[in-house]
Specification:
Elements: H1 2-8, H2 20-33, H3 46-60, E1 66-70, H4 79-84, H5 88-97, E2 102-106, H6 126-138, E3 143-146, H7 164-174
Parallel strand pairs: 1-2, 1-3
Bound molecules: pyridoxal-5'-phosphate (PLP).
């Protein structure tokens, strides 16, 4: 089997080209996601996917340098994804090696142990307000994008309150942030 494969194609990477199974996978992903006429970039890992997304965003906003993410987050182990990750180890590593982008962190919406010390019924979604005030401090023109987890995984399997992402999206759209 190895001989057969070596005779057909000895080395392959998505950087150089695609193959039929990869195209079929891309089409299936688009159909599952309900997207038409979109492009798919296949990567090798979550870190690779996120680093690629960060680079695309930076390419789109060349003059900006700041990424907003969350305390306690994990986005991968490439340079950019380490910078935007909020876990202690990632923060330590990032301080040592430096990065091609800057990171500011907002608290993740963790109602059970609210990082702002507030109660869900009376907090007025201050965690969304934190993102808004970070944008104000940094200046929206300096922000490349915001990256977040729909459920914070390595930081403790934290599920945000129901309307969090709707409100967050509103803030980002108002400031034209990716
Ligand atoms: C939310 C999240 N993003 C990115 C990654 C990185 O993915 P990978 O380990 O495939 O590089 C992980 C891995 O745990 C993750 O939990």
């Amino acid at each position: 089997m190895i001989k057969e494969q070596a005779e057909e194609l000895i080395h392959f990477t998505f950087i150089y080209g695609y193959n039929i199974p990869a195209l079929q996978l891309a089409e299936e992903l688009l159909s599952l996601a309900g997207f038409k006429d979109w492009r798919v970039v296949l990567g090798l890992s979550g870190s690779d996917a996120n680093e690629g997304a960060l680079m695309l965003a930076k390419g789109f906003r060349r003059n900006s340098r700041v990424l907003i993410s969350n305390s306690g987050s994990f986005h991968g182990c490439c340079v950019g994804t380490t910078t935007v990750s909020g876990m202690d180890l990632s923060v330590k590593v990032s301080k040592i090696i430096g990065s091609w982008l800057e990171s500011v962190k907002a608290p993740y919406p963790y109602c059970y142990r609210c990082p702002l010390g507030l109660k869900p019924k009376s907090c007025g979604m201050s965690c969304v307000e934190c993102v808004r005030s970070l944008i104000d401090n940094v200046g929206s023109e300096n922000v490349i994008a915001l990256i977040t987890e729909s459920i914070q995984g390595d930081g403790g399997i934290v599920v945000p309150p129901e309307n969090y992402f709707t409100l967050l999206e509103g803030v980002l759209r108002r400031h034209e942030i990716l």
